[in-house]
Amino acid sequence: MNTDDGRPKIQLGDYIILQRQKYTKLVKFSNADSTAMLGKEQLELGNILDQPYFSTFKMCPKEELGRSHRGRQRLHTLEICTDIELPNIREALGISSCGPDNRNIIDDGDSQSLKPDDIEQLRDEYNESTKIIEKIVENSKTFHTKTEYSQEKYLKKKEKKYFEFVQIKQPNIRLIAEIYYRQDAERIMSIRMDTLSQIISYSGVSAYGNYLMYESGTNGLLPAAFLNAMGSNTEACLVHMHPGNVAQKQAVLALNFPEEQGRRCISVNIYSVLREYYQGENSKEEESTDSNEHLEPCIKKPKLQNEVDEEKKQKEGFAGQQKDSINNSGQKIEQENINEIESDGSKQAQETTINDDCNVKCSNKVQVPQKWQLENRRACCLMREKFDSLFIAAKEHPTNLVRELLQLIKPSRPIVIFSLCREVLTELYMDLKTNSSKVINLHLTSNWMRLYQILPNRTHPEVNMQSNSGYLLTGYTVE
């Protein structure tokens, strides 16, 4: 649902991104009573329903929770702000004086006269971060003797702590990649945003064609990036192979893709789909045979109705012949035999009816294909048509994977292999150079990114550097 100006609205079931200054967090807005945690702040999300994305909300505390208790989680409701202009904290406080240097400042713990309980009381009395920071600055003994740079650093630290505005953003692949990388880079194989962009560029993903991917655990970041690059109005398909029983799709769900676009990602277990691809119909017969072995004997091979009727006729004919051949003295015995035969036939008919009912139930249970079977069939159809690109991000050694999946790629198509270990890709590079003539133009590259802090009179690299984001081996297939 969109607003009058075309901006989408927040709906139940959507994944949203909460941003408070530079801090971002991904949460799911499941129901009107949902809450989210931002540090020690607990936010009620009910008021954001049907509000446009990228709206700014003000955190309003609820007094009934007794927020004066230090360390206790504070509950806030969100009120939308129509017109908001965040003032410069230094100009708002009217600070004009500063010291020449910090040589005489001693960190003895007594520079702030306000105690923690006093600051908590200020948070109860004032609902604006500017007023709280103003009181903290007034009670600081060393603030006005600090340099201008130290004062701004101090004010930004306090503003970050007492900032009362939250913005609701719509998830995109860049924000999700940054959030996952900041929380736990190992969960996404340490793939930074710059490496992810290189992967998409080298793979040649577009709105047309079929693409093959194998990844062994990135929280769905790589499939989500490929689907995002394909777009919504597309004819492309992605076969996502994974080693586990269930594919990781957290990032795919977080992007709130339309249903049609989400169906273009076919997630299959690599061992299961390759077995069905090579064995074909034989694998289906083996699967049905294996499943019948676990059934009860009475349900496993039930008799058909015509077989039961033929047996009944044979028994009646045999009984008639016996009736003609025996004498009158044996009529009583013969009649007893006929009665027994008829009773056995009725029992068999009843058992056959029960077996037929059991057979119908079991046939319905066995014949209905499960979701993973349907996905395997869809993937096998695309595998027979061949793919336009191959991408592998494996925690294990990728040589066997490349040998197996390379034959499913059309000529003159790109292949991209990602790994955190350079030696692994070096071995694969030599293997493709010496033992395979299907790949040319091989290149082994690594991405290295340095972030800079750009401020007036102080530009320098950031103190905390990001580690290596893996290596890429790229090439093109030939006949």
From TrEMBL:
Main location (coarse class): nucleus
Annotated segments matching region Disordered: 282-331
InterPro entries found in the cross-reference section: SAM-dependent_MTases_sf, TRM6
Superkingdom of source: Eukaryota
Cell compartments where the protein resides: Nucleus
Physiological role: Substrate-binding subunit of tRNA (adenine-N1-)-methyltransferase, which catalyzes the formation of N1-methyladenine at position 58 (m1A58) in initiator methionyl-tRNA.
Family in the record: Belongs to the TRM6/GCD10 family.
Protein name: tRNA (adenine(58)-N(1))-methyltransferase non-catalytic subunit TRM6
Organism this protein belongs to: Glossina brevipalpis
Top-level taxonomy: Eukaryota, Metazoa, Ecdysozoa, Arthropoda, Hexapoda
